[in-house]
Amino acid sequence: MDTELVINSDIATGDFAISANPLFSILMPVYNRAHMAKNAIESILQQTHKNWELVIVDDGSDDKSMEVCGRYKDSRIIIEKHHKNLGVGAGFNTAASISSGQIMGLLGSDDALEKNALEIMAEQHKRNPQFSLITSSQLPCDEQLKPTGEAPNFRATTYRPLIFGIENGNFVSFKRAAYFLTEGFEQQFRSAVDHDLFLKLEEVGNVGFFDQCLYRYRQHAKSVSQGRMTKKSLFFFTGLTYGAAHERRRNTSFPRLPVNKYHRMMKNSSYKHLRYHGLKSRKSIAPAFQYARHALALQFLSKAG
Fold first, then answer.
1. Which residues fall within 8 angstroms of residue 53, CB to CB, at 6 or more apart?
2. What's the mean per-residue pLDDT of the chain?
3. Where are the domains of the chain?
4. By the 8 A CB rule, do 43 and 14 touch?
5. What DSSP character marks residue 17?
6. What are phi and psi of 301, to 5 degrees?
7. DSSP 3-state assignment of 220?
8. What is the spatial distance between Cα 96 and Cα 105, in angstroms, rounded to a whole number?
9. Given pLDDT bands bounded at 50, 70 and 90, which one contains residue 276?
10. Which pLDDT belongs to residue 297?
11. Which of 98, 160, 244, 252 has its Cα between 20 and 30 A from that of 149?
């Protein structure tokens, strides 16, 4: 493998050495994806790296998701169930807590991995023990997971701390030791929980990207990132992740949020989008703002109340 790993951020350096044949844990929350989860699961069963576990957390589905996931009789597949819908952040946290791998990776239940994805990513992690987070490119696909012909999604290939901008849709993997130095996934956010974790992992180790498509991203109407209202709400919660990092990094040497950028993010959201996500009162919104306490966020809260 000669694909070069590019440093996106080195504001912190860790030492997360792993074994020669690491266990790779794939974390996959599922919510009403009975018609799509099959592709995700079978893409893991076909991996060339055989030392893996797939941790599936059904987040209170009311369709046949559990039935579909339970059909696969492989001891490497672990299934947990939430008795009510707690959100994707809670799903990832539950999966991480019961996983055992030295490396963890994120997989959407409506997406799939290329068959050599774990092998290639594990090799990158072995070669680069100082990296907490490593990502690769994605391949945009249609509803049948066939490539659309669109250009692959790439993360920036020049040095840029993540607080100055994160791009979506790559195969995301991180070392277990690094993950447990953070607070994990933010369960108060209804979306953008991956962005929040990226910023936390940036604070404990190097972050890198390599330009190889390992992830098939399914574009469909019910995707978390599709739909007008969902996109605007995603934009809002993404703004909160930057605000959280901004406040968390007070009294540190880590780069903080450009205030003007966050102001623009907040202005492009509205209380209507919060209501769409069920956050109907100041009391229920407040936890999501636990770090984002600069003037515009507080002004937004006062209007919401």
1. 23, 24, 25, 26, 76, 77, 78, 99, 100, 101
2. 81
3. 5-218, 228-304
4. no
5. -
6. -65, -40
7. coil
8. 10
9. very low
10. 44
11. 160
